[in-house]
Amino acid sequence: MSVRLRHLRRLVREGPSDAPGRLVDGLGRMGLVGYGIVHLLVAWLALQTAFGVPTGAADAQGAIGFIAQTRFGIAALIVATVGLVAFAVWQLTAALIGFRWVSGGERTRKRAGATAKAVAMLALASVTSGFVDGVGTRSGDGGARALTADVLRLPFGRLLVGLAALGILVIAVAMTYTGVRRTFMGDLDVRELAPAARRSIEVVGTVGHLARALAFGVVGMLVGAAAVASDPERAGGLDAALRALGETGPGSSLLVVVAAGFAAFGLFCFADAATRRA
Fold it and tell me: Which residues does the UniProt record annotate as the domain DUF1206 (predicted)?
């Protein structure tokens, strides 16, 4: 274990989390559980794609659409929407005044990460609420292509799409750093857990973050290709990225590995919900 990681663990403060109140804390943890379930379903859909089984899009929209079709799906999505919004509020609070146990660049990075998490949770909440309203949402790939087409029609549209691609690639690099350095452990209070449990969280967290980094990296390259060719049809979301991975040399084997990584991240979300400090 790195000296830096041990230092972060020593600095995890005692007392309540950065959530603004116990209600937001509890609902936010529930939102993290929902986030984990979505990743497990995305992993399952990706496996179906790898084995050539016709299925829905292997992305958040596909996973949430699957939930909506179950017996208590709408009720579950209502709960998930509330939880996701609560976690977003929690992370926005942390971005403004949180992470007091670290300082300098480390605090800045963590607050920036909290802001990104809040945006991601609100985006996912908009998807879940769309299914609750009965209107659903456009698939991730369709939405990405439509948005890219709209931006390309603007002045300097290709430049803007190129900058968006660069931003996505930066996120992928940040996820890689988080996974390799295991900095996510610094946000968790695992002092009371057995060594085997702590190690398990490290493993699923590392594998999950790296799998997501790979998928985001491919999304960034697809958007970048759309900018270079000025062709919105080359853009795509998570489903397109996973299908692109399935068409590489390793083919379905690589897609199975990535699906396992998304499942690992789903499990990490459950541990995150139970032990998160910020």
Answer: 31-96, 112-182, 207-276
